[in-house]
Amino acid sequence: MTDPYTYVVIVSALALLAYYFTLLKAGLARGRFKIVPPAHTGPEEYERYVRAHQNTLEHLVLFLPGMWLFAYVVSPVWAAGIGAIWPPMRVLYALGYHKAAEKRLIPLYISMPPIYIFVLGSLIGGIVRVISGE
Hints:
Blueprint: H1 5-32, H2 44-73, H3 76-83, H4 86-99, H5 105-132
Helix pairs in contact: 1-2, 1-3, 1-4, 2-3, 2-4, 2-5, 4-5
């Protein structure tokens, strides 16, 4: 039988690959638009690639530890199931953002609830464990 934390490992790897996708696309856009390092400004189209990358990093920093905390205090299977939403939505978010800022919104709104569930669920699960003496 597979250790249930293995599913959290798989979702974590997918999340990191989704982040790497945004990193790669921002780097390629830097070359396409001839943006010389360390500059991060340029045409609006280029800046959308950079923002998609930066915003994904900002969310990843909440998503990954939140998912692992939730897996530990609530359930690794539930954590992986809920977390599986995030990686594809962040890729769709980036692809939409690359086209136009308003095209990022639906995947953004779908990718955010797992983070809230993980952080609040971990807090509640931790408090319940303390109260119950686990």
